[in-house]
Structure formats: structure tokens, C-alpha cells
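Two proteins follow. First one:
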Amino acid sequence: MGLSIFFVSNPKFEEFYKEYGQKPLGNFIRSLIGLEESAVEKAFADFLQAGSLRADQITFTRTLMAYFIKNGVLDKTLLYESPFTDINDQSLNGLFEDAKVIQLVRIIDGINNNATLA
């Protein structure tokens, strides 16, 4: 009997899916324990060190970083909800020019994809 057959036919596993969904194991673990601060700082280092960010842009970026430290992954649809809209109601689109938005989305995707591969 393969391990996947055990999980699929196990009633407790079905309850687990109902509660947490069928997200990759790495995403699930990160959602429980978050992400190390040093890993988040490394992911955002180039973006922050590029300079010329305004105070509100730095605050947004730090909010994003804090979210990753606490939650480990980020569903990008959450970017258009609080706390990301607390600084600007258009979230990152209202704070950054297009090139910076693309750069931030790539950082977010990189962190999220890394969890999927774990």
C-alpha cells in the first residue's frame, strides 16, 4: 500500500483537508511556524539597499517582511487588504512605480515558491 493511498483513504486526513486545504506541505509548515527573520531580510536586502525609498514605501516593505516572518507565505490577494492597504488604499500599486511593484512581486513569488519546493 503506497503512502498516498493511506492518506487519501484516511478519514482524519480528509478532515485535515477540510480544515487546511490541499496546500503543499512546505506552505502548511511555514503557515504554522513562519519564516526566519534573517531569511526574510536576505530576500528583501537588495530591494531595500537600492535606496531612494520614501518613508511610506519602507513602512510598507517592513510590513510585508513582518507578515512573512509571522506567516511564512503570502497569498498575493492579501496585498489588497489590511494591513497592506493601511498605508495606501491601493496597496503597493499606490506606493511604488511599476518597476518596483514587479520587483516586489518577484520577491514575494520567490519566497512563496521556495516554500512549495520544501
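Second one, unrelated to the first:
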Amino acid sequence: MSKVKASYGIHFNGNRLRGAKVLLPLDENGNPNWKYMTDFIKKLEHETASKALEYIYIYISYPFARNLNIAWKVENGKYLT
């Protein structure tokens, strides 16, 4: 079996899942560290939502930028080009 678990042509389905090992972070007692995993997912969600909201804010605040190819950078809460 190849080292690639999933890709465009190799779908990760139930059969592949049965043979896969899922490594989880452990706490000091050797149990799955649910708090770490929860905090990690919350951080990812926050980062994704922040990026989406930033895009929406720029799109609404600067309608002329919709047709321009401008790279926006945030510094101290201000949008710069």
C-alpha cells in the first residue's frame, strides 16, 4: 500500500478508515487530551472566521476595491495598500 492516505484520486472512505491509525495528543495520564483538541479547533475556527470577516469588512468598506487587484495588509487595525 502506498504512503499516501488520501488525495484527489484516492478517497478516504470507510475501508481505508478501518485500516488507518489516528494519532491523538495525550495528556499526562496517557488519555486523549480533549481540552487541547477542543482549544485547537476553536483556534482554527477563530482564525478562519477572522479572515472571512476581514474580507467582508474590506468588501463592504471599500467597494471600489472589488474591481482592483489590491493586496490589503492590516497594521494596528488599519487597512493599508
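SUMMARY FIELD: The chain has a mean pLDDT of 77. Residues 14-80 form one domain.
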